[in-house]
């Protein structure tokens, strides 16, 4: 199962098994995750993403931001490769165009925005890093918008990348 799918499943299960899901993680250890995620518009996605990485337990806010940017990169790259596979098999001309544009948008995220965000974050330039995360969200939006009124075959992955970009941008906003 892909990371994105795991995250989505985690989100769906979270409400029903909120006690057992993180039973091994003490309240004190997750408090910073929860407090930090309250500053975002996607609280559940934020908590689930951070809890999927054991490094989050001992991380400060900057380290949480780094973990999120890395998760974003992994998700975006996975989506890019998935769209690449779809692109190879498509015959419908409109879909061919849509997928082609999505590949360009995702290449911008994976090859430009995220590497720049990581560099900026590591050197403490949080505003640049935040702008890159916002740009990543806009690229995911541009991909999605093309499919207006039609089935978007990787919409869940695209929405996860969009949401993670905005979560990351909000947390970078706390730092900067
Ligand atoms: C993206 O995924 C591919 C295939 O799994 C991998 O070879 C490549 O190194 C990844 N690129 C980045 C930037 O993570």
Please characterize this protein's 3D structure.
The chain has 176 residues and is an all-alpha fold. It has a single domain (28-175), classed as Invertase/pectin methylesterase inhibitor family protein (Butyryl-CoA Dehydrogenase, subunit A, domain 3, Up-down Bundle). Helix content is 75%, strand content 0%. It is built from seven helices and no strands. The longest helix is centred in the middle third of the chain and has 30 residues, at 93-122. The chain is elongated, with a radius of gyration of 16 Å. Residues 15-23 have low confidence and may be disordered. Bound molecules: 2-acetamido-2-deoxy-beta-D-glucopyranose (NAG). 2-acetamido-2-deoxy-beta-D-glucopyranose is lined by residues 73, 77, 81, 110. The site of 2-acetamido-2-deoxy-beta-D-glucopyranose has 4 residues, from helix 4.
What's the arrangement of secondary structure elements?
Blueprint: H1 3-14, H2 27-37, H3 43-51, H4 61-89, H5 93-122, H6 126-145, H7 155-175
Helix pairs in contact: 1-3, 2-3, 3-7, 4-5, 4-7, 5-6, 6-7
The SS-based structural class is: mainly alpha
The kinds of small molecule bound in this structure are:
2-acetamido-2-deoxy-beta-D-glucopyranose
Low-confidence stretches: 15-23
- From the spread of the alpha carbons, the general shape counts as elongated
Task: Return the CATH architecture.
Answer: Up-down Bundle
Q: Find the CATH superfamily.
A: Invertase/pectin methylesterase inhibitor family protein
Tell me the total number of β-strands: 0
Approximate helicity band: over 70%
CATH topology: Butyryl-CoA Dehydrogenase, subunit A, domain 3
Distance between the termini: 35 Å
In terms of DSSP E residues, the strand content is under 5%
The mean pLDDT is: 88
Number of domains as seen in the coordinates: 1
Biggest beta sheet attributes: none
| Rg from alpha-carbon coordinates | 16 Å
């Amino acid at each position: 199962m892909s990371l994105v799918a795991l995250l989505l499943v985690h989100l769906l299960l979270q409400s029903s098994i909120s006690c057992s899901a993180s039973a091994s993680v003490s309240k004190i250890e997750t408090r910073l995750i929860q407090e930090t995620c309250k500053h975002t518009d996607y609280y559940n996605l934020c908590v689930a993403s951070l809890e999927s990485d054991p490094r989050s337990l001992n991380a400060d806010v900057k380290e949480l931001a780094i973990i999120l940017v890395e998760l974003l990169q992994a998700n975006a790259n996975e989506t890019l490769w998935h769209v690449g596979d779809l692109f190879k098999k498509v015959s419908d001309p409109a879909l061919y165009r849509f997928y082609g544009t999505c590949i360009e948008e995702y290449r911008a995220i994976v090859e430009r925005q995220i590497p720049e965000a990581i560099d900026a974050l590591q050197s403490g330039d949080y505003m640049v890093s935040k702008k890159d995360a916002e740009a990543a969200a806009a690229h995911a939006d541009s991909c999605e918008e093309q499919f207006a009124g039609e089935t978007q075959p990787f919409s869940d992955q695209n929405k996860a990348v969009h949401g993670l970009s905005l979560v990351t941008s909000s947390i970078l906003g706390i730092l900067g």
